[in-house]
Amino acid sequence: MSASGGTKAIVAALAANLAIAVAKFVAFLFSGSSSMLAESVHSLADSGNQGLLLLGGKKAQRAATPQHPFGYGRERYIYAFLVSIVLFSVGGMFAIYEGYEKIKHPHELEHWYWPVGVLVFAIIAESFSFRTAIKESNSIRGKQSWSDFVRRAKAPELPVVLLEDLGALIGLVLALGGVGIALATGNGVWDGIGTLCIGVLLILIAIVLAVETKSLLLGESAGIEEVQKIEGAIVDGDTVTRIIHMRTLHLGPEELLVAAKVAVQHDDTATEVASAINAAEARIREAVPIARVIYLEPDIYSETAAAAGENPAKSPGGH
């Protein structure tokens, strides 16, 4: 996995979640808090999620094969999608079930200082992990807002870690609130309500992750800036006079396919056209280094054909 894949953020989140999961489970054993049990399962699921992200990054580095000629870059998208499923099923659904049981059968918390102490520790540890994810994201986010970064990032790991850490911090605050109100009122139902809120939060985050990674799995085009750079690199104004149409597709977070039909001069020789295509490919790779697979088809530009427009039946997606 490349540095842009956020390996540092994933490792930081993994270390924090493993330590927190153990601490939360110990606190649950001493206090009987359902919020603590839900949060320990949440942290354990998060640890597994980070393991999945690291595994996906490792598998994505495999070389292309005859069966998979474009490589395995999309493995990272597949494992990120699995993360959303794990977060939904293991984290969210379990927390809702545990919260329902605690509301139905409430009992007073024992040894309250265990859950409170662990929650404070967990908030500090998760804040460190969240800070690392923010720092890693800022290096590639540019001027995008955080919502745009999560929606448009082609590398799924950092958005996943960011949303997980944000959800974990909010969940910890909810757990602390549930435990605190339960202690103040002597009513264990509040602990169950806090657990229910944690479950709903995790399911909402899981849905956002699933929607975004589904889009990546289906295949997204290059970003607007990359498309503009590619268009500027293709046309040299001499042999390659214009782009008739172009398609881009992410084969992985750091691998882009570019396919375009370009207009050349009608009286150019085959040698001149071939040289111009090779030069255009070199300019594209210089302008957008992740453009690894490039197919340029030379053609003669026709005003009549251009006025008629493209035939949707011959274009993927009907565009």
Please provide a written account of the structure.
It contains ten helices and three strands, in the order ααααααααββαβα. The chain is mainly α and 319 residues long. The protein has a three-stranded mixed beta sheet with strand order 1-2-3. It is elongated, with a radius of gyration of 26 Å. The model is unreliable at 315-319 (pLDDT under 50). The chain crosses the membrane at residues 6-30, 77-97, 112-134, 161-183, 189-211. This is Cation diffusion facilitator family transporter.
Tell me the fraction of residues in β-strands, as a range: 5-15%
Strands of the largest sheet, in order across it? 1-2-3
Low-confidence stretches: 315-319
The appropriate CATH architecture of the largest domain is: Up-down Bundle
List the helices and strands and how they pair.
Layout: H1 7-31, H2 34-59, H3 75-104, H4 113-141, H5 146-152, H6 157-185, H7 189-218, H8 224-234, E1 240-252, E2 255-264, H9 270-287, E3 291-299, H10 303-308
Parallel strand pairs: 2-3
Antiparallel strand pairs: 1-2
Quick tags:
mainly alpha; 319 residues; Cation_efflux_TM; Alpha-Beta Plaits; three-stranded mixed beta sheet; Cation diffusion facilitator family transporter
